[in-house]
Amino acid sequence: MLLNASLSLNAFPIEDLLEEFQDVFPKDVPHGLPPLRATLPNKAAYRTNPKEAKKIQNQVGKLIEKGWIRESMSP
Description:
The protein is mainly alpha-helical.
């Protein structure tokens, strides 16, 4: 999405909003994501008939080609 060049930052009062709601934002922001604390489920995929399995494989293949998903690195 492209923004019109005639729009200026003054049209978006972001600083006013940040000042108004400063109590909502933490003073210190942690660097990075929090550690993963839950265990991942380690179970086989649900069973499907061959026709459904082929449809799923085609959909997954298309998503991988588009770069929207990638293969898992988990064991």
